[in-house]
Input
Amino acid sequence: MSFSQTLVDRLAAARHVAVLTGAGISAESGVPTFRDPDGLWARFRPQELANVEAFLRNPVLVQGWYAHRRRLAQEVAPNPGHRALARLEELVPAFTLVTQNVDDLHQRAGSRAVVELHGNLTRSYCIDCRRPAADAEAGPAHGREEGPVRCPACGGLIRPDVVWFGEPLPAEALERATEAAATCDVFLSIGTSAVVYPAAGLPLLAVEHGAYVAEVNVERSAIAAHVHEVVLGPAGTVLPALVEAVAARQGRGG
Ligand code: BV8
Ligand code: ZN
Output
């Protein structure tokens, strides 16, 4: 397998393991990534949809795009990569899973303390009164004529509870993620191109603080040169084998 014995030993003995995931961990569930050729944004450019100006200019398009992605996320299932991380959480004393993904698949795979850096598609709210919008209200059905979905209480536009470009990340989530990167023994960066900040800064912070940092990706990411180990392979194959090896190293195989 393409990971080192060092990585297995460090994970098996770790007091605290931190993980950052990106769209790549959900790719094998059938959720398109952002920047791969067939990625979500292949048809759209990020500045077209994932920012508040685009939303205010064309709320029906942006609400429709998120409604489509919400439906997609509900139709797919967690893959062995998601499940391997849920198992790793049980093998180490302290575990922090930080995700850039908004698809809810880590939670559905059984991961407990998931830190959502960029929000979550399953939640929507009114931009004026901030009232949470029930799912049904959240996005226009196909071919809806009467324009954007609005808040039944005040008429404000309903938006997804995700972080758009130019928007600050949820303070509490960013604090927990930064604390984990600064105090963990091992940091895994999985399935992310590591071009979006401040998320991509987390593995670099972990390197600075002396953690052993490895990335799992099908190609080298923007931070590959800065981490201790690059494991090339699909997360759905690499992670189950890695976690199995860690369990065996801890004498809990099987
Ligand atoms: C902020 C939510 C400030 C919505 C998203 C210039 C330089 C540096 C930074 C900036 C800059 N100009 C602007 C910025 C800041 C900007 C940024 O970083 N821009 C980048 C693009 C240059 N960041 C922001 O705007 C952030 N906010 O900085 O606010 C601020 C502070 C205070 C007050 C006001 C403002 C907000 C960023 C969050 C944006 N929201 N998503 C939505 O989902 O629609 S970002 C979006 O990209 C997703 O969250 C996604 O997770 C994230 C990162 O993408 P990846 O997950 O890495 O996915 P990608 O497709 O790129 O890569 C997939 C990887 O998986 C690939 O490497 C592939 O090889 C690999 N892979 C594929 N298959 C597999 C696999 N790996 C393993 N197994 C497989 N099977
Ligand atoms: Zn409202």
Notes: The chain has two domains: 1-31+78-118+169-254, 32-75+123-162. The mean pLDDT is 92.
